[in-house]
Amino acid sequence: MIKPRTILFITLDPIESGSSAMTVNRNLINSLVKKGYIIDALTINTVNDVQLNNSILTNKFRHVFRLQPINLNPSIGKTGFKSFVKKELIKIVKKVYQSISVFNYTVFAAKRIKLESVNNNSYDYVISVSDPKTSHIAAKKLISSGLSVKKWIQIWGDPLSIDISNKVITPRLVLKRIEYNLIKNADQIVYVSPSTSKYMKKNFAKIAEKISFIPLPLDLDVNNDKLEYYKKDTIQFSYLGSYHSSIRNIKPLYDSFDNLMNAKLVIAGHSNLTLSSTANIDVMPNQSLSKLREIEDKTDVYVAILNNSGTQIPGKLYYYAGTNKPIMVLYPKNTDPFIINYLDHFKRFWLVRFDEIDNFYVQFRDVKSLYVDNSIVIKVLSPDVITSYIMEGKSYNYNEEEGIKYE
After folding, report:
1. What is the pLDDT of residues 9-29, one digit of tens each?
2. Domains identified in the chain and CATH numbers
3. Helix/strand/coil (H, E, C) string of the chain?
């Protein structure tokens, strides 16, 4: 009898989190379990601002090992001048820390980890997944402490040295050195964007053979009901996710709905901006998972916005690509054509430059244009195919003439 292969799956995003990163992790874990792998999880306890989704724990992991985080957002129940001063001091300390620290608050737990944090000292595979990037620090610390592992696989979202969400004052050359020291000992380094993989191979030529491009898998659990637009008086567009102005520009989308007839826009997520709701725009803060599912059920068109710069592709594109609903992808004029061509090869997304939004709405009112062909993405981005590629050390190939290829 063949002994089941074992995996230590490391993510310092709480496994109960409703984040996009954990949605992707859930798809990978489900597929690995179906393939017969025995999985232990190393994660971190939740803090008070994390949206929870307990369903991921059901019959997925053999063991769940938890680290204790340092909470940088402590609750201060008292009122009065002293309480106000304490809150303001915490804000200042947090702002200073974020300007000088390369990693988020989970780095303290990652650096304190000991081999005793997991009750097994041997695995066939360690898979560390970012974001957060501290997942890889935890894996490195465990392996250097004596954890026996046949293969260490790192899966990266945003790379450290070109992550535009990272606002630290650390020079780029220093970030590259930190990044190299973090990735050099892994056996396989997976990036989910072809342009990011291309960049990393060029800038880390010594370990280029370890670097592969494997896209994110679809979320096959998203509402996939058949749509009947011709029966609707108003079409609902939904942007569900963060929109910090330094990372992506939501204003062209928001402004385009001014006086737009027979259409509604829902925006829900974290931001540094203060946008007001209008007659046909509902602006909400970050929502619970159950509330997001309600919004998704009512959504006719999903909206994603590419980053202001960089090589990464928002995970929301993959998250919604398996549905029967259109996906409008907005992008700034300076977006790398390589990224646009890559997305266009899927024949799945409405790629709309900021200055062409009005023309898109005119075209969209034609019912014939609402047909969605998701046959390519369901085949190419299947969780089973992607997990096989990860575990077998393969790589997808992409060129601008032939598109995305895999065996």
Report:
1. 999 988 877 677 777 888 899
2. 6-213 (3.40.50), 229-380 (3.40.50.2000)
3. CCCCCEEEEECCCCCCECCHHHHHHHHHHHHHHHCCCEEEEEEECCCCCCCECHHHHCCCCCEEEEECCCCCCCCCCCCCHHHHHHHHHHHHHHHHHHHHCCCCCCHHHHHHCCHHHCCCCEEEEEEEECCCCHHHHHHHHHHHCCCEEEEEEEEECCCCCCCCCCCCCCCHHHHHHHHHHHHCCCCEEEECCHHHHHHHHHHCHHHHHHEEECCCCCCCCCCCCCCCHHHCCCEEEEEECCCCCCCCCCHHHHHHCCCCCCEEEEEECCCCCCCCCECCEEEECCCCHHHHHHHHHHCCEEEEECCCCCCCCCHHHHHHCCCCCCEEEEECCCCCHHHHHHHHCCCCEEEEEHHHHHHHHHHHCCHHHHCCCCHHHHHHCCHHHHHHHHHHCCCCEEECCCEEECC
